[in-house]
């Protein structure tokens, strides 16, 4: 098949939510419908087996959160759907942000009892900044939840985009009767139970039938009223506006009961965009170009402690990946072996023969690949857009056994390259500084240093409160700034200079005194 055909049938999306909204449950059901796995519960099992194989996942187990993100692939109708899971806990949001740069759409899961929650909001900011199209699933309608009109209103206000309900719930909780399909003017009747895949929902088309009216009572009439209201008040669905991240189609359902799940898959296939062109510093890259290009958006180290291996997660951006082909790291021209590249088909890691734009491939390596790297067949190219956020919390790290300091440095460098934490080397002195967006990152790092590098490290408070990457059109001016502020300068993993301040006021003073210097809260890998 031509590359163009393969591109057209790819859908790559991330699933985002606040913890406990039902992301794992929905993922499980999506995989079940798409025929990638047959038993519900496998996604949870996957979580569990990861605990067993990887020690540091103990942290995840202890806290009941998902630390690492992962990738699944499934086939539905004629499409290949790549689903990227994201960690829900806010302390890992950096990882999540980067995952969002590798997808073409997002599926947002909302708990109908809680509405839009804090963590969802932060993720949505990233989607909005990139105009990522979002499909919304309002979950848990089988519970006593908030009024749907309220929810819709809240989503619209907090997302800053119009909500276009595709379905509308009839009742909720114990009297949840199903959803009305606004396009086809029918109602699918809810049937509790989680193991039905094949059985079809009963569909009702005659709302004025007295028997139907009696059966669903006031719940049906108020749903129909609400639908009238919505149809009168909200704009029609506009595909372009959806693709631009200005409208979100909304679906109601209950993931645990398999209700409303198929509609989500259909929406992804029918509405979500196939892979599109991507920006590199040098040029725009089209997905159906003949030559392969890809971007490393995530690195997971030490999946197997005995081998100290790392897997780089690469989003294919153009061309056709074939096992064994010659690829180069565009940053330094180094060759990459592609004979052992793996796919992420459901929960198994298989050797991969080929892949197309939108697919995610895993490349085992020993440190050759870094976050943000571009892979090509030889062309010098650097994709833009992989974000690094200025850390908000800083710590120093101490060890009791000085003989382990080499190990400490190795561990921190590798964890830094993986993006688990940001490691800064001060301009003066040699005490490494750690920066994070959430405090839990420090716990993960201490735990992993102990278990993977046999280093007992103690994390101690540092005097800094904020960091800004600094750039200047005039390199000499930048150098002058660095010399004048030597005790407040450190370098990150790619040696980008950073200004550190203990108080917000120090930053304002520096900004006032050095007008030519730019201070950045976000560094896009370049
Ligand atoms: P995650 O943290 O977002 O991955 O959430 P989970 O999928 O683990 O779900 C959190 C809890 O909500 C679990 O106890 C699920 O069984 C429950 N849950 C998920 N979907 C539904 C639903 O549709 N209805 C009800 N009543 N509970 C649900």
Automatic annotation (TrEMBL):
GO terms for biological process: regulation of translational termination. Residues 8-276 form the Tr-type G domain. GO terms for molecular function: GTP binding; GTPase activity; guanosine tetraphosphate binding; translation release factor activity, codon nonspecific; translation release factor activity, codon specific. This is Peptide chain release factor 3. It comes from Nitrosomonas supralitoralis. GTP binds at residues 17-24, 85-89, 139-142. It is found in: Cytoplasm. One of its GO terms (cellular component) is cytosol. Increases the formation of ribosomal termination complexes and stimulates activities of RF-1 and RF-2. It binds guanine nucleotides and has strong preference for UGA stop codons. It may interact directly with the ribosome. The stimulation of RF-1 and RF-2 is significantly reduced by GTP and GDP, but not by GMP. It comes from the Bacteria.
């Amino acid at each position: 098949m031509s590359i163009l055909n393969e591109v057209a049938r790819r859908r790559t999306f991330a699933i985002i939510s606040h913890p406990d909204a039902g992301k794992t449950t929905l993922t499980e059901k999506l995989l079940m419908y798409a025929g990638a796995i047959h038993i519900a519960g496998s996604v949870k099992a996957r979580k569990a087996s990861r605990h067993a194989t990887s020690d540091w996942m103990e942290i995840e187990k202890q806290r009941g959160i998902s630390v690492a993100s992962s990738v699944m692939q499934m086939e539905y109708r004629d499409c290949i759907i790549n689903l990227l899971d994201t960690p829900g806990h806010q302390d890992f949001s950096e990882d999540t942000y980067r995952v969002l740069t590798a997808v073409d759409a997002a599926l947002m899961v909302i708990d109908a009892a809680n509405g839009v929650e804090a963590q969802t909001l932060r993720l949505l900011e990233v989607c909005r900044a990139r105009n990522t199209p979002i499909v919304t699933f309002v979950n848990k309608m089988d519970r006593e939840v908030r009024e749907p009109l309220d929810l819709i209103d809240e989503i619209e206000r907090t997302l800053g985009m119009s909500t276009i309900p595709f379905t509308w719930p009839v009742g909720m909780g114990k009297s949840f009767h199903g959803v009305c399909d606004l396009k086809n003017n029918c109602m699918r009747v809810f049937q509790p139970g989680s193991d039905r895949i094949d059985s079809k929902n009963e569909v009702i088309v005659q709302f004025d039938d007295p028997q139907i009216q009696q059966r669903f009572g006031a719940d049906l009439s108020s749903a129909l009223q609400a639908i009238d209201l919505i149809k009168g008040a909200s704009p029609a669905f506009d595909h372009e506006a959806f693709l631009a991240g200005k409208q979100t189609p909304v679906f109601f359902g209950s993931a645990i009961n398999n209700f409303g799940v198929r509609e989500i898959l259909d929406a992804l296939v029918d509405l979500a965009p196939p892979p599109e062109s991507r920006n590199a510093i040098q040029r725009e890259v089209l997905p159906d170009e003949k030559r392969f290009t890809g971007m490393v958006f995530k690195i997971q180290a030490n999946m197997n402690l005995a081998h100290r291996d790392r897997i780089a997660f690469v989003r294919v951006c153009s061309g056709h990946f074939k096992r064994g082909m010659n690829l180069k790291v565009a940053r330094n021209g180094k060759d990459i072996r592609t004979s052992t590249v793996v796919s992420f088909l459901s929960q198994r890691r298989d050797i991969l023969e080929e892949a197309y734009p939108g697919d995610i491939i895993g490349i085992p390596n020993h440190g050759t690949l870094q976050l943000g790297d571009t892979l090509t067949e030889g062309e010098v190219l650097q994709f833009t857009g992989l974000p690094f956020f200025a850390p908000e919390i800083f710590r120093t790290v101490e060890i009791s056994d000085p003989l382990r300091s080499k190990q400490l440095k190795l561990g921190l460098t590798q964890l830094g390259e993986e993006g688990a934490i940001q490691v800064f080397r001060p301009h003066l002195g040699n005490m490494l500084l750690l920066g994070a967006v959430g405090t839990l990152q420090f716990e993960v790092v201490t735990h992993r240093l102990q278990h993977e590098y046999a280093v007992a490290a103690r994390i101690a408070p540092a005097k800094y409160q904020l960091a800004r990457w600094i750039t200047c059109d005039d390199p000499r001016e930048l150098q002058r700034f660095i010399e004048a502020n030597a005790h407040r300068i450190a370098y990150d993993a790619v040696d980008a200079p950073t200004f550190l301040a203990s108080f917000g006021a120090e930053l304002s003073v520096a900004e006032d005194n050095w007008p030519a210097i730019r201070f950045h809260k976000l560094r896009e890998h370049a």
